[in-house]
Amino acid sequence: MTATRYPSLRIHCPCAEPVTDSQGAELDPASTPASPDPTAEATTRLELPPSLESPFALHALNNLYFCDVCMVLRCERCVVEEVVQTYCPACLHVYSADTTGGANEPSKVTRKGRGYDAVFCTRNCLQCPSCFTNLVMFSPSASEGSEVSGTVYLQCPHCSWDSRRCPRNLTFSKHWSLYQQLRKISVSAIEDDYADISDTPTTRFSALSAFYQQLYESLDAEEEESEDSAPPSPLFSKRANRSLETIRFLKSHYSKQGGSSSASSPAVTPASVLSAFGRAGGVSSQKAREYAEREKERCVEYIDEETEGEEALRVRGISSLDGTPTVSQQLANPFVRPTRSSDLLPLPTRLRTRRAKRCRACRHILVRPDVSSRKVSSSSSSTSSTATGSASTVATAFRINLLSKNYIPTLRLTYLPSTPPAPASAPYQAGFIPHITYTFALTLFNPLYEPIKITLASPPRTPKHSHLITFLTPTFEIGPNIEDDWDLHALASLRTKFADLKISGMANISASLESGRGGPNLGILDRGRNWTSVIFEVVPANARNSEIVVPLFVSVAYEAEVEKDFTAGGQSAADGGLFDKERREMAFWSVLRIGRVIS
Amino acid sequence: MASSSGDAGTSELMRDIAMLRRQLSSSSPSTPGALASFASSPLLSPSTRQQYTDPPVILDIGARGIRAGIAGLERPVCELPIGPDPRGRIKTHVLWDVDMRNTEMEDFHDILQAILRDVYYKYLLLDGKSRKVVILENPMMTLQLKKAIAFVLFNYFQSISVTYMLSPVCSMLAAGARTALVVDIGWHETTVTPIYDYKPLLFAVKSTLRAGEQLHDLVSGALKGFTDVLPSFDEVEEFIARAMYCTRIDEITSSTSQQAFAITLSGNTYYVPSSETRYSPLVQCFIQRAADNADDIDCFPIPDLIVSCLSGLGVDTRASMLSRIVFVGGCSNIPGLKLRILEEVRNCLVYDANSGHSIELQKNFRPWTIGDRSRIKGITSLGAWSGASLYISRERDYLLNGGGGGAGQRAIRRIRVETASGISHTTSSSFRILGEVERDKFLQDEIYADNIFDWTVPTKYA
C-alpha cells in the first residue's frame, strides 16, 4: 500500500452516490441526489454522503472537471470519453486523427492500421524488455556522430541491455521500420529455440484460423448440397446425418489436396472412413478410427511431453530467480511470453491517446484537445527515432478545457505550530498527541471574477474517531480574481506572517486574534485580493493510531452577471445595462486528511 | 400504395419519406420520447453501421487479472494483474471472493471500472461505446458477477452490447479440437469442463478449491517457515511464477536436489531448501490427497477431480475425452505440472499390477482403459482468449464476406447449436451473438437485466 502523505486534501464527487443513480442522472441531473442541491443542503441538516469514504469518489482538484451547464463537478467516472487522437509517446508521431471540425460534433476518428499496428508505434520506437526505457539505435559500422545506417543494434541507456547480447545476437538489417522487423524476429526466435515451428503462437494461430475457415466453407458447401437433394427422410437420423457430413468434409478435403498427399498418407478408403463413424458396418479397426478422429480434428496438437519434461528439469536446476524474467517482464511482451531472461526481446512502444470528455448528464463537452497537428521535418527531431520525410507530431493544446480549479475555490491546508521551536512538519512525522489543540490555516483561493461568499460546515466531531474540530469562522467572503489588481504585496505579507508564526509561535497570533473577538474578522488569519485564510482547530481524541479525517462541506455563493433576457420580460430593458445579476450557488464536500494520532 | 411494390422509383420515394419522417420525429425537441431515446442510445455514435461490423473487444475477466484485446489478434493486447494502484485506490489483489457474500459489489464496480478505464484508454485505445464486448466466463461464474460486469460496461463505458462466452469452449477451440476435457486451474477454483462435439456438458462440470489461492497460501507458509519473514503478496506470486516446478512421480524418491535456492524478501537474501519450497507445496496443493482420502467434496485433488468428472459421463463420451485433455489457467504454466497431472490420471485409470495406485478408483474404470496408458493424452491450447478471438474473427469474416445467405445461415445455426456459445444473426451487415445483452434494454428494463443469460439453467438456451 502506498503511504499517504499528510496533510492531503481531496474533493468528493457525488456521482456514485447511490450506484444505481446514473440512469436517472443522465436524464435530469438536477433532480437526483447525485448532484446536491446547494440551497436545500445548506439550509437543512447536513448529512454526510455515504460514499465520502470511498477512495474512488475522492479526487485531487486538478483531476476534476466542471460542467458549466449543470453547475456540478465531474470526475473521471461521470464523464464520457472519446479518443480523438493516438500518438507515440516516444517519437510523438500522430497515428490517428480526428477528422471532424466543429467542437460540438461527434468525433470521427480514423484509425490507422489494424490489429497490433493500431496500438503500437510502427516506426522505430522500441523499449527495453528489462526496464522499459526507450532503446537507442547504434550502428556497429558507423563512426561516432555519423548517421546511423545499415545493420543496427539496440542498447538501453538505463540498464545497458544490449540486443547483441541476446543469445541470437539480435541485430536489425535495416535502420527503419524496426517494429516490423521485430515482429518477424518474435516469431522466428522461438522457432530456433524449440525447433518446433508449429509451437509458436503466431503460426499456430494462423493454422487454426485457416482450419476453421475450411470448416466453415465445407459446412456451407454441404448445406448447399443438401438443399438440392431430397428432404431428409425420417430414416435419415441425426447421427447418420452427422457422419455423412464428416465424410463429405473429408471427401472435399482430399479432393482439394489432390493426388500427391493421398499417396503419402495412409490409405483412406470409403470403407475405412465409414467404419470409423459407424456402427454402419464394414471392417472396424482401431487404427482407422484413430485416423479418422485425427482427421476430424487434425489441428489438434498433443503436449510434447519430452520438451515439457526438459523444461521442468531446467527450472529445477536453477538456484535463484535471476535467470527468469519477472512477471511484469513476461506480461509486457504482447507477441511471445519469455521464459528465460535471455529470451527477452525488445518491446514495441504502446501508443497513447488524447481524449475529449463530455458531461454524462448533458453531453456538454468539458475537454477537447486541439488536434490540428503541426508538420515538422525530420531534420529537426532526433535521428534515432524518426522516419524519413516530414511527420506530424502531436500537439499539446486544448480547444476546450473546463477544469474545476477555474470554477471552485482552491483549498490549501497549513499547520500553524503553537510552540516556536517545533517545525511545521513535526506532527506529521511524529504523530498527533491526543487532547492537544492543533491549529491549522485553511486558505481558499477564488478563481472567479466575482466576489464569493463561502460557508464552511463540518461535523463537530469526525465521524470515525470523534476527533474534535472547530472552525472559528464558518462564513466569510473572498474578493474577486481580477487580473489588474496586483497583489504581490498582500501575498508577501502573508508569507511574513507565516514566517512570524514559525518564529514566535501561535501565542502571539492568538493574542491578536483575541483583540478582534466579536468582530467580523474573528478566526480569519489573513486575506488578500482573491484569497482568505481561516483558522480551525483540531483536538485529537484518545484513539491510538487512528487517522484524523475531517469531512468539510464548502458552499460557494456569488452573483454572476448574465445577459438580460429581453425576449421574456421586456420591462427590465429600461433600467440600465445589458446584464442581470443572477445568484448562483454551488457546493461540494471535501475530505481533509490531517494526520495520524500517535501510536 | 399497395400496387407500388413492384415499382422501384415509387418505393425509393417511399423510403425517403419514411426516413425523413423518422428524422423529424427524432429531432423534435418537444417530444419527451425523443429525449429518452437520446439519453439511452449509445451517445452520439459516429456511425452505427461501423459499430456493428468492427471486431469486438474480448475481455477475459478473472479474479486475479484481466486479459483484453480486439478479436482477430493472436494474443491479448494486454494482460493486467489486479493489485494496488499508484493512486492508492485499489487495495486488494482479487476482484471477487469465492464466497460472494464477502464481495462488496460497490467495490467491485469501482475497481472494475478503474481497471477497464486503463484497458480501454491505455491499451486498446478505443472508446468503450464504439465496440461490442465479448466476455469469457467460467461456467461457475455467478449471475451476480455477470450482471455487475454488464452494469459497469453499460454504465461507465456505454458498450453497445455484452456477450458471454464460455471460456472452456473457447479454450477448446484454441486447441483445434471438437471434443475435450478442459482443466482450468484458476485462482479460486480449478474447474473441469467436459465438452463433447462442441457441446459443453455442464451437468458434469466439477470444481475444486485446490487452485492458485491455496497454492499461494502454501508457498507463503513454506517461505515464512524457512526465513521467518512474511513475504508480501507480490513476492510470493513472483516466486510461484518463476521458481516453481513439478517432476514425474518416480523422480520424487530419487530427488537429490537438496540445493539451496536464493530468494530476496524485503531486501534481504535468504537461502531456502529448494524442493521443500519450490516443489512440495505444488504437490500438496494439486496432487496429494488428504489423509485417509478424506477430502471434502469441493477439495478434491486435480487428478481425482478429472477422474470423477469422467466417471459422471456416458461410456462413449469418456473415451474420446481421455486423449483430449486441455490445461489452461495461470497455474498450468508451471513447468511439469501438466505432465504430472496426466501421469497421476493414468495411474488412477489404468490398471497396473506392479503399482498399488488408487485401488478405489480403479473399480469404476478398469473395463475401459486396461493397459493402454498412452491413450490418456493432453493437447495444447492457445488459451481461452485466443480461442474466442479465433472464433469471432472467423464468424465475422464469414458473415461480412457475403456468407449468411440462405444456405450459410443454416450452417451457422448448426455450428451455433453445436458450440452452444455461438452466433446467430439478423442481417448480413451486422452480426449478433446468441445471448447478447444489449445496452438499451439492460438499462431500461430491470426484468431484462435480471435475466442475464445463464448457462447453468438449461431452459434458457435450449
Commentary on this structure:
Chain A is α+β, with helices and mostly antiparallel strands and 599 residues long. Chain A is 26% helix and 23% strand. Chain A has 4 domains: 249 residues, no CATH class; 100 residues, no CATH class; 113 residues, no CATH class; 70 residues, no CATH class. In chain A, the strands form 7 sheets. Chain A has a 6-stranded antiparallel β-sheet. A 6-stranded antiparallel β-sheet of chain A has the order 7-6-5-12-13-16, with no helix packed on it. In chain A, strand 5 and strand 6 form a beta hairpin. Among the domains of chain B are: 146 residues, ATPase, nucleotide binding domain (Nucleotidyltransferase, domain 5), CATH 3.30.420.40; 73 residues, Actin, Chain A, domain 4 (Alpha-Beta Complex), CATH 3.90.640. Chain B is 44% helix and 15% strand. In chain B, the strands form 4 sheets. A 6-stranded mixed β-sheet of chain B has the order 3-2-1-4-5-16, with helices on both faces. In chain B, 49% of the residues are buried. The N terminus and C terminus of chain B are likely disordered. Classes of the chains: A alpha+beta (599), B alpha/beta (462).
Number of domains of chain A: 4
Number of helices of chain A: 13
Strand content of chain B: 5-15%
CATH class of one domain in chain B: Alpha Beta
Number of strands of chain B: 16
Total number of helices of chain B: 19
What is the fourth-level CATH superfamily of one domain in chain B? ATPase, nucleotide binding domain
Outline type of chain A: elongated
- End-to-end gap of chain B: 42 Å
Q: What is the topology?
A:
The complex is a heterodimer of chains A (599) and B (462).
Chain A: E1 8-12, H1 22-27, H2 38-43, E2 58-59, E3 65-67, E4 72-74, E5 79-87, E6 94-98, E7 109-110, E8 126-127, E9 136-138, E10 153-155, H3 178-194, H4 201-228, H5 238-257, H6 259-264, H7 270-277, H8 286-296, H9 305-317, H10 327-332, E11 347-348, E12 352-359, E13 365-369, E14 374-376, E15 391-393, E16 398-401, E17 410-416, H11 426-430, E18 438-445, E19 452-457, E20 468-471, E21 475-478, H12 488-504, H13 506-515, E22 524-527, E23 531-539, E24 547-563, E25 579-596
Helix pairs in contact in A: 4-5, 7-8
Chain B: H1 8-27, H2 32-40, H3 48-53, E1 57-61, E2 65-70, E3 78-81, H4 105-124, E4 133-137, H5 143-157, E5 161-166, H6 167-173, E6 180-185, E7 190-196, E8 199-200, E9 206-208, H7 212-227, H8 233-243, H9 250-253, E10 260-265, E11 268-273, H10 274-278, H11 280-286, H12 302-311, H13 315-322, E12 325-328, H14 337-349, H15 359-369, E13 378-379, H16 384-400, H17 406-419, E14 423-424, E15 432-433, E16 436-438, H18 439-444, H19 446-450
